[in-house]
Structure formats: structure tokens, C-alpha cells
Specification:
Number of strands: 0
Radius of gyration: 22 Å
Oligomer: single chain
Largest sheet: none
Distance between the termini: 53 Å
Number of helices: 13
Helix content: 55-70%
Length: 314
């Protein structure tokens, strides 16, 4: 009886400690968790820094996708008429500019870095707080992770639209990588470039399967997938870094799950910075969001190019 009582007390203490730790983690940002690490991690010398002769544009070479580009008003008017007359499906047409440009740029800029240049706040989280190497391959892993998170939400859209969005996103990802390998990594041989792209494509297929499993099961499985892919299965891993990334991914997926198809399909999603906490919505807040969406999407002044068949209800 005494041993059984001690065992029960020990289990209760472990459960209480676990609950207390979970509550403590909820009050911390992913960046806070990563910076709580006390383990000194030394990375091997970077023998392949990203030191480009010229930098690729964030979106593409097309002037129509430049962030500063404004379509002339005459062309806008002609376009609105054409959409109405030919009954164009804007949900299908938007896939290119939204998934292939806006959302790909969101993924790309997260871990973008160049040798001897100051890092963005988000890039600092990955390269300084998580101690990831500043290489092209590591940028690929960071970008692929964010691409996967977007694809999870795209798969929840009506099939014909979600599949189109996913295809546009992946097509732009690999087209940009091909150009970056040539322009920024000085890979001038098409044979070598094709081999790199094949290897990266294989990596992408593998990480999608492992992240999907982690998303559908539990945090331990997701942490294992992150360790194998984002952290390259290195042995000198700090578990606080895995905790930080699990929280980071779960928070992004939560925000994505609360977006309506229409909001997401029109490019309104932004990744939550790692120095911020995501608080879950109350029912009142969700109802308020729905009322705002109704007011916006049912307005009589809505232009043909702004119309959509996708639901604005989550």
C-alpha cells in the first residue's frame, strides 16, 4: 500500500509538473523559448555562403508582379468588363498572383540571407536563436516548411481551387530556386543545376510526408520531423529549439485554420513573427470576424475582379 501510494504521488507530481510547464510555455513566444537555451552549439564552417553577384527579385522578373507596380486605370476598367462579359472564374485566375507570387514571397523572405548582410528579425530567429547554418540548403528547408504550412490550408479549400493554388506555389518555388542557383550561387552548369533541383524535389516530398504525419498526430512526432528536416538530424540539438519550432508551427496552423477560404485565397494571410504569441479566438471574436466579412464581401460596390465563389465563413 505504501509503495502504491508513493507511486501514485510520484505520478501526480509528474503530471502537475507537466501541466505547469505547458502553462509556462503558453506564455512564451517561440523566440523566448529558443533563447532560453543554455547549451553552446558550434556550427561547422560554412563553406558555401550565399554571396551573389546579383540578387533575384523577391517576386519575379515580371514588372506586373513588382510590389510597386500599379495597373493603369484604363487597363483596370477593360479588365473588369472582360471579367463580366466572359464570366471569368476569378478564384482560378487568382491562384497565380496570390499563391505563386504573394504567398511564395511570404515563404521566401522568412529565411532569406546573404553573406555579410544584416539579417531580418525573422531570419535572426532561425540563424541566431536556433543556430541554423547560413547556407542555401538551409534556406530551402526554412522555405519548404512555410510552403508546407500554406499547402495544408490549400488542401482544405475546394479541391479544384486548392490543387491549383498548390501547383502555382510549388511551380514558383522551384523556378525561383533554379534562377537563384544560377544567379546567386553561380551554378552555371545545367546538368549540375538539374541534379540540385532533383535532390531538393526529393527532399520536399519527404518532408511533406513527415510534417503531415506530425500535424495529424502529436507534438513529439512533429518535433521528430522538424529535427530530421529543418535541423538536418544533427546530434547537438537543444530540445528547447525543438519546443520553439513546434510552437511556431502549431501557431501558424491555428491562424490558418481560422481563416475563411475567401480571405486566404485573396492573399490576406501573413506568417506570425516568432516574437509574438497567438491567443485563441473567443466565440465572440469569431462572430465579429464573420460580421466584418459579410460587410466586406456582400457590399454592392464590390468589383467583378473582387468577387468569389469561395466561402467567407470559416
Amino acid at each position: 500500500m505504501f509503495r502504491q501510494a508513493l507511486r501514485s504521488q510520484s505520478q501526480a507530481c509528474r503530471f502537475s509538473t507537466s501541466v505547469a510547464r505547458l502553462r509556462a510555455l503558453e506564455a512564451l513566444t517561440p523566440k523566448d523559448i529558443a533563447q532560453s537555451s543554455t547549451i553552446k552549439i558550434e556550427l561547422p564552417e560554412n563553406k558555401a555562403p550565399v554571396n551573389p553577384k546579383q540578387k533575384r527579385p523577391m517576386l519575379s522578373d515580371s514588372k506586373y508582379e513588382a510590389e510597386s507596380y500599379q495597373l493603369p486605370k484604363v487597363m483596370q476598367a477593360v479588365g473588369e468588363v472582360a471579367i463580366t462579359v466572359f464570366r471569368l472564374d476569378m478564384d482560378r485566375i487568382r491562384a497565380g498572383p496570390i499563391a505563386g507570387s504573394v504567398y511564395y514571397a511570404e515563404c521566401k523572405r522568412i529565411g532569406l540571407q546573404f553573406q555579410d548582410e544584416e539579417l531580418s528579425d525573422t531570419a535572426k530567429f532561425f540563424y541566431e536563436d536556433l543556430h541554423l547554418p547560413r547556407t542555401f540548403s538551409q534556406w530551402f528547408q526554412i522555405t519548404a516548411l512555410h510552403t508546407w504550412m500554406l499547402s495544408v490550408r490549400m488542401r482544405a479549400m475546394p479541391f479544384k481551387y486548392g490543387k491549383n493554388y498548390q501547383q502555382k506555389l510549388i511551380d514558383r518555388f522551384f523556378r525561383d530556386m533554379e534562377l537563384r542557383l544560377h544567379d546567386e550561387m553561380n551554378v552555371n552548369s545545367s546538368r549540375i543545376s538539374d541534379q540540385y533541383l532533383k535532390d531538393y524535389n526529393d527532399q520536399l516530398r519527404g518532408l511533406v510526408c513527415s510534417y503531415d504525419e506530425g500535424f495529424a498526430t502529436d507534438d513529439a512526432t512533429l518535433a521528430s520531423a522538424l529535427w530530421r528536416n529543418l535541423f538536418n538530424a544533427r546530434t547537438n540539438i537543444d530540445f528547447s529549439h525543438l519546443e520553439a519550432m513546434v510552437k511556431y508551427v502549431r501557431e501558424q496552423l491555428y491562424v490558418l485554420s481560422k481563416m475563411s477560404d475567401r480571405d486566404f485565397a485573396t492573399g490576406k494571410f501573413k506568417f506570425v513573427p516568432p516574437d509574438q504569441i497567438v491567443n485563441h479566438f473567443t466565440k465572440e471574436q469569431e462572430q465579429e470576424m464573420l460580421e466584418r466579412a459579410k460587410k466586406e464581401y456582400e457590399a454592392e460596390s464590390l468589383l467583378p475582379s473582387q468577387r468569389s465563389k469561395l466561402s467567407y465563413e470559416n
